[in-house]
What does this fold into?
Amino acid sequence: MDQPIRMKNNGQISIVLNSQKRKSLAKEPIESPLVQKDFPPEHSALKEIEEELNALVGMEEMKRMIKEIYAWIYVNKKRENAGLKAGKQALHMMFKGNPGTGKTTVARLIGKLFLKMNVLSKGHLIEAERADLVGEYIGHTAQKTRDLIKKAIGGILFIDEAYSLGRGGEKDFGKEAIDTLVKHMEDRQHEFILILAGYSREMDYFLTLNPGLHSRFPLVIDFPDYSVVQLMEIGDRMLKDREYTLSHEAEKKLRDHLLWIKTHLNPISFSNGRYIRNVLEKSIRAQAMRLLIQNSYDRHELVTIRSNDLVFEKD
It folds into this structure.
C-alpha cells in the first residue's frame, strides 16, 4: 500500500512521492478532511492559504502536510483552552529537492499562515546562503549567524543549499555556523522557524555533520521534480498571467523540448519551474523583436508566441 507520509525512526515526518503516485496526481486530486467549500470564519487563515496553495502546480502531498500542521496547531490551542496539555513541538523544517520545485514559495506561504495563527509574530522570510553565515576568521561566523537569526526572530530563516555549510571539512568555518544554528534552534525554538533547503542526497549527508541536527527537524518535506505535463501547466499559467499564448506549433515544440530534457538531462542540472520561466521570458523578448522587425502589431500577433520565438536555455 502506498504510504506517502512516513514517520522515521528519528521522529521525523517524511513526505515521499513515488513515481506511481506522481502519475496519478494529475488525474485524481487528493481529498482532505479540511477541504470544503464553506470554511467556518475561524478557519479563514487556512482558507486564504489554501487558495494560494491551489494556485501552485503539483505538490499535493506538501499541501496536505501544511493542512495537517494547521490542524495540529489549531487543536493544540483548543486543548490548551480546555485545560489539557498542549504540545510544544518545534516547527523547524527541511525541504529536499532540486532547484525550481517551489521551496522558497512554500516557505513564504508557511510564514504567512503562521503569522495568521499567531505562531509567528511577524511571519517574514529571511533568505540566506553560505556567504551570509560564514565569516573570515574565528568567531566571525558565530556573530554573523547570530545576527541573521536576530533578523529572523518572529519569522522564518530560510537557508538554501544548506549542505554547503559542511563542505569544507573540520577546519572550515561552516561548521561553526552549523553549531550556532543548532544552539539557537533549541534556545529560541518558538521564536523563529529555521528551514534548510537543498538537494536530497546532500541534505541527507548534511544531517550527519552534527549529532543534534536530526532531532531538531521534525518536518522533512520532499519536493519532487515536475513532470512534463506539470511544466506545461506552469508555463500556461505564466503566459496567461502576462496575457500571452503559445501557437499550436510553439506548444508542440516546447513540449517536445521538455520531453527531451527529462529523458537526457541529469535531473540535478534542470531547474524545473525556473527553467520554464526563463525560457518564456526570453521568448517574449524574441517575439517583441520579431514584431518590431515585421512592423506587425495587431492584437492576435501581440499575444501570440510562435515556435520561432522560443529561446531555450542552451540556444
